[in-house]
Automatic annotation (TrEMBL):
Domain of life: Bacteria
Secretion signal, residue range per the UniProt entry: 1-19
Protein name as catalogued: TIGR03016 family PEP-CTERM system-associated outer membrane protein
Sorted UniProt keywords: Signal
Length: 400
């Protein structure tokens, strides 16, 4: 405790003494987390509750090189469980990239992000294992924009996605995806922008089935989307972004996940008062698209099998009680389509709630606590119901 207090004073003094904005940020945090159902066991069966200590260190570098902006962020975290010490692990995150532009009409981005952490337990159809399962998620992407006029542009992008697990029991859930898109955009910045484009995705699950030990059958998939996008800023207090797509998805083995129809998302950021900000999001897409929609190396809150179709709604609210104290609230509902190779279908519904408070006693110190609950219900034999209550408190020290 004395060492932590000393570190707090040092960081506070250094932060107050800074003469100008530094091109780097370093933060250290200590959290304690309680989970009433660590392995997301089915309702009516014994559950394992536990308390985990999470010690994290994160850093970020920024550099301006003429018209180019480069950044590098990395973090490491040690997770230690009081009772289920077989789950102890060290996680890490990484995000790096370049935002580039030429004197004329070309601009774009290069980015790589990865996360290594504990897999989310309770995924429908996954084996229930009371042991450590680590998930590694990677994303590499490049985008380019060619300005035709001050209001119109051609857009292109390519991306590679990859998800791997540490346990052989999850090998049929590992996948790689290659994505390419080309589109056209027209509009006025900070007002209304419309876009249309085509997107093609190739999906590969190398160890989808193992008919004999050591012999694997791969599942390959293709997805084609025609995307229509909108970005609308009716005022400085409100921003609406939307995408609706005509989607066709086909697989060589997992044909029960074949799909043709509409997918898309809608997000509304609104600040009705100086103290209150709201964020609303509606989404209909597969688990893989939801996982990588805004991926920056963070852990997933809800795990869904990559090929399953999910309809979700989320509301987040943030209220400034004082200049140093904030209240946060969030609610999320997800309805997942279930199917297997025998023609059996169904749905499950997951609700996630959270309420928290944050306090900044100084510019460099953050104290926070959050309580939450996660419930899943279903009438399908392809999933099961569970309930989990969580609580977490942390202290974070930041120097920038």
């Amino acid at each position: 405790m004395r060492g932590l207090a000393t570190l707090t004073l040092i960081l506070s003094a250094l932060g107050a003494a800074r003469a100008q904005e530094r091109p780097w940020t370093v933060s250290a945090s200590q959290a304690v987390r309680y989970d009433s159902n660590v392995f997301r066991a089915e309702r009516g069966t014994p559950t394992d509750s536990d308390v985990a200590s999470i010690t994290s260190l994160d850093g970020r570098l920024r550099a301006q090189l003429g018209r180019q902006q480069a950044y590098l962020g990395a973090g490491v975290s040690a997770h230690r469980y009081r009772d289920n010490d077989q789950l102890d692990f060290t996680g890490n995150t990484l995000e790096t990239g370049v935002n580039w532009a030429t004197v004329e009409r070309l601009s774009g981005t290069l980015r790589y992000a990865q996360n290594r952490g504990l897999a989310v337990y309770g995924t429908a159809g996954a084996p229930q294992i009371n042991d450590r399962i680590l998930e590694r998620t990677q994303l590499g992407e490049a985008t380019v924009r060619f300005g035709i006029t001050s209001r119109s542009a051609l857009l292109g992008s390519v991306a590679h996605r990859r998800v791997d697990y540490s346990e052989a029991a999850y090998q049929d859930r590992e996948y790689r995806q290659n994505v390419a898109s080309l589109g056209y955009q027209y509009g006025v910045e900070r007002a209304l922008t419309l876009g249309v484009g085509a997107r093609h995705t190739r999906d590969h699950t190398p160890r989808y089935d193992e008919p004999t030990p050591g012999s694997f059958v791969a599942n390959r998939g293709t997805r084609r989307d025609v995307d229509f996008t909108l970005l609308w800023q009716p005022s400085g207090l409100s921003t609406v972004s939307a995408r609706i797509s005509a989607t066709r998805q086909r697989y060589t083995q997992a044909t029960e996940a074949d799909f043709s129809g509409a997918t898309g998302s809608l997000r509304w950021e609104y600040r009705p008062t100086g103290r209150l900000s709201l964020s609303t999001q509606l989404e209909r897409d597969t688990g893989a698209e939801a996982r990588f929609a805004d991926f920056s190396g963070t852990d997933p809150e809800l795990s869904v099998e990559s090929r399953r179709l999910v309809n979700s709604a989320q509301l987040e609210a943030r209220y400034e009680l004082t200049g140093k104290t904030r209240l946060n609230a969030r609610v999320r509902h997800a309805r997942t389509k279930l199917s297997d190779g025998t023609g059996t279908t169904g749905h499950d519904n997951t609700n996630i709630y959270g309420l928290g408070i944050e306090y900044n006693p100084t510019r460099t110190v953050l104290l926070g606590c959050e309580a939450g609950q996660e419930n899943r219900s279903t009438a399908s034999p392809l999933s099961y119901a569970y309930r989990a209550t969580t609580a977490q408190c942390l202290v974070r020290l930041t120097l920038d």
